[in-house]
Amino acid sequence: MDDMADSDFPAGTTSAEDVEHASADDGVKRRQVLEGAREVFMSAGFDAGSMNDIARAAGVSKGTLYAYFDSKVALFEALIREDRAHQPERNTMFPADEPDPAKALATYGRALVAHVTGSDALTQARVVAFAAAKFPRLGQTFYEAGPEFGVRTLKGRLDAFVAAGTLAIGDTRLAATQFIDLCLGDVLKRLLFMVVTSLSEEEIGLTADSAVDMFMKAYGAPPRG
Fold first, then answer.
1. What's the pTM?
2. Which of 32, 139, 213, 217 is the least crowded, having the fewest Cβ atoms under 10 Å away?
């Protein structure tokens, strides 16, 4: 069957079952396209990777590719959102049931550093940074779906600790940004600029613990009573 006609039905014969199957097929095909795009962008970069390369890597026709995404920029934006939607900070990175902010932040800090400094995340960050000079929208999408989402999420956790009286923070959004920067600042720079190629678990732990220590000295609530 022609790729461009995958979701077409003869007039008068469309059933609920047909629509359900078409929707499932559509989701599978879209994911196939995104996986092909990920392979090409991560290996060749944004500029060098062509829609022809992506179609080939995805195992679809170029017509099918354009049926889902009208440009390479739109495809890369969708890939960024897809990858960021499945990042750990969107679900289990922060322990929701830990009442001690120092312990919760230590767990969060370790997971954050490990994720952001992983090879896949670093490769995508480098590709986006290079492409953003020509296509600022890609940089904005990456920032909003990743760093900005992380700050908003952490702010919500800090708000809860402030409400519980275990942290004393005037501006929780600023504090969230500060904690993330404490965790990532130097180690991320060293990795992005290839001063080092990876971090050991010990380095990740020391980085997170140091960030927690400084953060709690600044924002830890005084003991009650």
1. 0.76
2. 217
